[in-house]
Structures are given as C-alpha cells and as structure tokens.
C-alpha cells in the first residue's frame, strides 16, 4: 500500500475505533489518522503472530485486524492516562 492508502485506511480505522470506544480523547483528525495507522500496524503484527493473517490492503480481514489493533491502542492509552 502506498502512503496515500495508509492515510485513507488510517482515517477509516481511527474513526471506527473511536466509534466503537466513544469518549473524550484529545486530538482531532491527525490523531485519529495516526491512531488508525498505528492500529493497523499493531493489528497486523498480532494477526500475523497468531496466524489470522496480516494487513495487506483494503479487504475485510485487514480492516478487522486494523480496527482491533486501534481499539487495543485506544484502550491502552486510556488505561495509561488514568
């Protein structure tokens, strides 16, 4: 995936993660994109480690792994913030 694809995927994944876990989190669009990109990385790593697959582009399994990783990162961020 190119850099533009990562940004679009990050925006979608970050928005889905914030939709799944609503709350008052700092940051706007840029933080949402970064959360989504980092979530895709974490989700892809965990998915590859556990044998579920990896983030390879815009497909259903990649989206699920990326959103799972972003939700995990958002959860960890909130736990550390408390």
The average pLDDT is: 78
Distance between the termini: 36 Å
Shape: globular
The structural domain count equals 1
Low-pLDDT sequence parts: none
Order of helices and strands: HHH
**Biggest pleated-sheet summary:** none
Helix count equals 3
**Given the helix and strand composition, which structural class is it?**
mainly alpha
**How many β strands by DSSP?**
0
How much β-strand is present in the residues? under 5%
Helix content: over 70%
Radius of gyration: 12 Å
Summary keywords:
single chain; 82 residues; mainly alpha; 3 helices
What does this structure look like?
The longest helix is centred in the middle third of the chain and has 22 residues, at 29-50. This protein has helices at 3-20, 29-50, 60-81. Helices cover 76% and strands 0% of the residues. With 82 residues, it is mainly α. The protein has one domain. The chain starts with a helix and ends with a helix. The chain is globular, with a radius of gyration of 12 Å. The mean pLDDT is 78. The chain has three helices and no strands.
């Amino acid at each position: 995936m190119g850099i533009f694809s990562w940004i679009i995927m990050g925006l979608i994944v970050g928005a889905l993660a914030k939709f799944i876990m609503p709350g008052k989190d700092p940051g706007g669009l840029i933080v949402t994109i970064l959360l989504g990109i980092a979530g895709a990385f974490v989700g892809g790593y965990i998915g590859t480690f556990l044998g579920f697959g990896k983030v390879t582009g815009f497909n259903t399994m990649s989206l699920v792994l990326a959103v799972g990783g972003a939700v995990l990162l958002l959860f960890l961020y909130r736990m550390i913030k408390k």
